[in-house]
Automatic annotation (TrEMBL):
Entry-linked PROSITE patterns: GLYCOSYL_HYDROL_F1_1, GLYCOSYL_HYDROL_F1_2
One of the GO BP terms on file: carbohydrate catabolic process
Lineage of producing organism: Bacteria, Bacillati, Bacillota, Clostridia, Lachnospirales
Protein name: 6-phospho-beta-glucosidase
Active site: 387 (nucleophile)
Recorded family membership: Belongs to the glycosyl hydrolase 1 family.
InterPro entries in UniProt: GH, GH_1_N_CS, Glyco_hydro_1, Glyco_hydro_1_AS
Origin superkingdom: Bacteria
Protein species of origin: Enterocloster lavalensis
Keywords, comma-separated and alphabetical: Glycosidase, Hydrolase
A molecular function (GO) term: beta-glucosidase activity
CC per GO annotation: cytosol
Amino acid sequence: MSKGRYHFPDNFMWGGATAANQVEGAWNEDGKGMTIEDCLPYREVGIADFTRQFAFSSKDLEEALAAEPEANYPKRRGIDFYHHYKEDIRLFAEMGFKVFRMSISWARIFTDPRDEKPNEVGIAFYEEMFKECRKYGIEPLVTLSHYDPPLVLATEYRGWYSREVVELFMKYARVCFERFGKYVKFWLTFNEVDAMLRHPVTSGGLIEDRFPDVPFERAIYQAMHHQMIASALAVKLGHEMMPGAQIGCMMTKLCFYPYTCKPEDNLATQQRMRSVYRYVDIQVFGEYPGYLKREIEKKGFHIEMEPEDGKILREGTVDFVSFSYYMTSCMAASTEGLDMAPGNTVNGVKNPYLTSSEWGWQTDPIGLRISLVELYDRYRKPLFIVENGLGARDTVEADGTIHDPYRIEYLRDHVNAMSDAINEDGVELWGYTWWGCIDLVSESTRQMSKRYGFIYVDMDDYGNGTFERVRKDSFYYYQKLIAANGDVEAVEATLS
């Protein structure tokens, strides 16, 4: 007997996701060292110019280090999760979370990554947070590196371009596995590992003007290789130190459609999608794909590799594939005269069949189903959606309530798509964590006003507010959805 369209596995992990640099704050407390993210200022930019948020130079760094305390560096304050984590985890438990995806700040574990011994106060913070999750039966899903390289990597090593950073990262990973392995079963090595190609500062600590002797694009390829080696070494070490641990990779699942049925547009789309998969191919299959080697060769670049690197990649393949998914775009061989749509740190041709958010991101639940099928067919590994969500402006009503039907609609439609991928297409999907389950500082715009959460945080783009937490309508909807194990029809029936 069929269990219906909305059947999810009994052990399906519903939850939410955040990143340390976007929520923790306490940037200079209890021995935490500075990170690149602590040095990124808030900039008033329009939707069409959002990529300017990622522009960063040595001059910007000097200004950040000399900035007054009242200067607007949003990641320094986050949402003060560092001091509110017990309240926030209690709210996650009230929603019914089975899993909470979060990241560890490397600079909170090692004040300086060159230090011989870790910062015990930082370790104690994460231990207490994991215990709090366990108290409520919430499984932590931990990302080792999520867009916050310690500042020293940029100032002393030229970021991940330097091979020495691999050794520093492994020292950090070893401490995490040793101290937190008893609390954490699910791990990710690098967040959106492909992202260094789009914003090398936050992903790799690479500041372009510090590479006068090396073509910057070549430096990025070299840095990506070092992250591939570090990821593989971490996977192998994690399996040795934590038997039974599941260690995955995490990618930005961009999805592009051909703008027309012209063969040229289809070829352009195929080529663009290859760039989405190229580094996850290494993490899953343990070797560079031929097309990536050819791409590097055609550019005239040479990637420095150690003799043992091939063996390291083969022995450090991941257990599962996780990804972020927010939207889709179109590709055309020529974009002349076509409307462009901004998105998750990328631009694409606007799809006339889709609606767009205020920030231009085009909503496409069917694209999530397509992405799940593509990923499962390609990798034959369990999948985990670790980021999906809608950034929108919320209004607090006079009585203090927050009505966000747009977020509920987005959630409902994407859960339907997940259900179809599981039940119609045979995809093995382990879980789903809504991005920004509590309002946080947006990575792409550094705004608070671009809100994702089911929980409202009383703070504006300039750091003004009480930091009070307030449940939105979507909080109660997700609570019902988790209780119904994704049965949208049952949840909708309670609302009619």
